Amino acid sequence: MNELWKLDTNRLKPGTDYTISLQGKAGYVSQGSNTARDHAQSPLFSYVNEGKLKSIKTYSNFLDLLDNYEKSTGVTEAVTPEELAENYRFLDSILQTEVMKRAHKYLVSKGKSRADLRSFKNQLYDIWFRLYHRDRSAGEDSCGFEHVFVGETKYGREIAGFHNWVQFYLEEKSRHLDYKGYKARDREAPDARAHVLNVQFSWNGLVKPVGSCFIGVSPEFEVALFTLVFLKSTGRVTRTVVNVDRYQLEVVVSRHGRSIGTSYPKLLSSGHRRL
To answer: How far is CA 11 from CA 107, 149, 150, 165, in A?
Structure first.
């Protein structure tokens, strides 16, 4: 995982490519409640170099995927030929990166993936883009990519998934999302250069009491990391404690058959300042 971190050359630089404003520590909100006191008067993202994002092929192709889904579970997804092409275009672009090449090589060495690229791409498609039933009352209404990177609403009452920083920034910019403050252990506070955060936010009127995501990392890094954990495990839910860069993380991955149900990093500790 540290090799993948070092190979992530498309990771954006805090303070240069983007700036975040952490502000206050968020308070307790019970699961299912959609009322939260706002401890952050300003957005989390003060600045993101969108020109740079759009100039990097993996980010550009990633952005094309964010409007391909119905927000609510229980609403059957319909994948158009154009959206199907966008899915494969994204996979083709990340497979050209050193991060995904290293992940592929590792998985082949462990007997978890085939060596030929076409088979690996099909495996990734099944893990991330194959539709399945999340709400049994409807048709195929979800997939791993939608849940993790785009976000969903469950029965219109709570936020499910939504663990990606680019989507967070875009929804915040569109005023669909309101950052409420960071979440951290007692007497620990993150800093503005953090690449992993636990946050509280509202999205279209619903509150996520605690959400966690990487900040500034490339989409290929996240796909590689979560795919590794998914394929190396057999349990329905896997919790792996890892040390990546200066962060100690719990990487959580749940499976939905042959696909990812959810995946996210949970920050345990870091080199952050003490209060």
So the answer is: 22, 16, 19, 12
